[in-house]
Amino acid sequence: MEIKILASSSKGNCIYVSDGRTGLLLDCGLPVQEIKRGLNFGLSQVAACLLTHSHNDHAKAAKDIIKAGIDFYASPATVGALGLVGHRVKTIKPMDRFEVGMWRVLAFDAVHDVETLGFLLSSTPYKVLYLVDSAYCKYRFRGLTHILVGCNYSLDILRRNMAEGFLLAELKSRIMRAHMSLETLREMLKANDLSRVEEIWLLHLSEGNSDAERFKREIRELTGKPVYVFAGE
Ligand SMILES: [Zn+2]
Ligand SMILES: [Zn+2]
Fold it and tell me: How far apart are CA 107 and CA 156, in angstroms?
């Protein structure tokens, strides 16, 4: 199993996953040149791109990826919002199941401020959950091996930043409605069967409202699993 986080923050989200046979891009929120550079100057190993939603930090390269002849999966609302066209564009709805190469994919609805999908990717022996930009997770999963999940902020840091005047109330409530807190992630992990989990990746940390080392430590202590945080830009 190969997981390459090309970017994961409010500035851009793009992740490459491969079971060794089929490579997928999860979101494409970087300039396409940067995606190519991150993949050793080629998109040839990418069988498809799965897009969670229309926000630019996830969708920036959508048109370029489609132009490059790569199958592109997104919800009808996302396709409409971005004005995506062409035979490479495949519209998918929550609870749709489809296959890309060796991967079996289940799309499900996330909880964000625009229509957003999460993805469950299965290719024996792997079962990968990808959920970013979601206030919480509506579903439980069995037998996950890799969890790639947004962990944007923690409540105490958010409250402190607000009390100290670094954060406007309006922005605070938007963050809380649309992104997952450390506290919510803890509850989500407790609600799921983690017996087969090999790796947990914490993604999309807020620049001002998170603490990468602490989040990693807390989730490692809670789960007993290897935890990684994307710390780049
Ligand atoms: Zn985002
Ligand atoms: Zn978003």
Answer: 32
Q: Name residue 121's beta-bridge partners.
A: 105, 128
Contacts of 38 (CB under 8 A, 6+ apart): 4, 6, 14, 16, 30
What are the structural domains, with CATH classification, of the chain? 2-229 (3.60.15.10)
Q: Are 180 and 136 in contact (CB under 8 A)?
A: yes
Block means of pLDDT (10 residues each) for the chain, 233 residues, are 94 96 97 96 93 98 98 98 98 98 98 97 98 97 97 94 87 91 98 97 94 97 97 60
The CA 47 to ligand 1 mean position distance, Å, reads 23
- Per-position DSSP letters for 162-220, written without gaps between them: HHTTSS-HHHHHHHHHHS-BHHHHHHHHHHS--TT--EEEEE---SSS--HHHHHHHHH
Q: Give me ligand 1 centre to Cα 154, in Å.
A: 16
Indicate the pTM of the whole model. Answer: 0.96
Strands 117-123 and 103-109: antiparallel
Q: How far is the CA of 170 from the centre of ligand 1 (A)?
A: 17
Residue 79 half-sphere exposure, CB side, CA atoms within 13 Å?
16
